[in-house]
Amino acid sequence: MPFIENEPTTPINYLQPIRQFIRRTVNNENEDVDFVPKANMRIWYNNQVEGYSVHKHDALEIVMPVENDYKYIVDGRKFILNANDILFIPPNTSHEIECDSEGSRFIYLFEISFLSNFYDFKELTEFLKEPRLVNINSFPSVYSQVFDHIMQINDTYFMYPSKVMEMTIYSHLLAVFGLLTRKDQVNPIDSMDSKQKDNYYKFKSLISYINSHYMDDLSLEYAATFVGFTKFYFARLFKEYTDTSFYNYLSLRRISASKTLLSDNELSITEIAFQTGFNNLSSFCRCFQRYEKCSPSAYRSMLKRKSN
């Protein structure tokens, strides 16, 4: 998740401790998270009007808008976050961000693999099997306590310019996990009937397949067969699950991958077109223009200007 430390609109009380964030490192959509040196976390106050293409990382990601909404697409599911909603994105889960309007939010990245030594880590693993949206409606009995702990994490992280109070911060994070994994909390999936659950996991598997095979010649008919539905029934259910059509999702996935590849100046735009599943350069350029409102070459030029 990028952050420009020298961004003039970043309040001085939200500057990074120890040293500023340098740059993102993303290879084949896998992000190597730049934690604070010798620490296991990084937290940003982010007010950039900028989206981020599909990526994943080993860290747990949490996001909480504080002003205006924010859009995440996690494993094909779209989440429109309102102010003070809290979204948990499990480690190694593909996600992207859409942002086309002003606003601000806190974004958190935490290393949590060392928690596997805890006796009840399996309960956290169960909770993080899916992206979790936490707000007053989804977790009414504990939301206010979760929100308070998140605010304490912010205060502690940004309070000290030359150190990170990891034990204090992780104590609040563990308290959050404890609240959200209590047995009396309702898992939304548990409230589904058997048919709904079956469809949910079928589409989850399909989205994972598309994310890994977007460069292949995928068709609606093939996708429908993948989950065992007729193409007409499939098309309706796919839109219910992802809030978009199959071909729109596939196109967005390909364009997202192409945006990552356009940062590699060794690849020609034609090569990128074929590597991301397009049959020819013209169809790639038309599709890119449709979603990004600019040509691939113009987008590449913009990336060069930013890097300089």
Concise structural overview:
By secondary structure, the chain is an alpha+beta fold. The chain has helices at 121-127, 143-159, 166-180, 194-213, 220-227, 231-242, 246-261, 269-275, 281-292, 296-307; strands spanning 26-27, 30-31, 41-46, 52-55, 60-67, 70-74, 77-81, 86-89, 95-98, 104-110, 132-134.
Descriptive report:
Helices cover 41% and strands 16% of the residues. It is α+β, with helices and mostly antiparallel strands and 308 residues long. The chain has two domains: 12-187, Jelly Rolls (Sandwich); 194-307, Homeodomain-like (Arc Repressor Mutant, subunit A, Orthogonal Bundle). It is globular. The two termini are 19 Å apart. The model is unreliable at 1-6 (pLDDT under 50).
How is the biggest beta sheet arranged?
A: 5 strands, antiparallel
Backbone shape: globular
> Measured on Cα atoms, how large is the radius of gyration?
20 Å
User: What is the average of the pLDDT values?
Assistant: 88
Counted by DSSP, the helix tally is 10
CATH top level class name of the largest domain: Mainly Beta
Number of strands: 11
Helix content: 40-55%
Number of domains: 2
Strand content: 15-25%
* CATH superfamily placement of the largest domain: Jelly Rolls
Structural class: alpha+beta
The helix-strand sequence is EEEEEEEEEEHEHHHHHHHHH
CATH topology of the largest domain: Jelly Rolls
Going by CATH, the architecture of the largest domain would be Sandwich
How far apart are the termini? 19 Å
> Ranges with pLDDT <50 over ≥5 residues?
1-6
Major sheet: arrangement of strands: 3-10-5-8-11
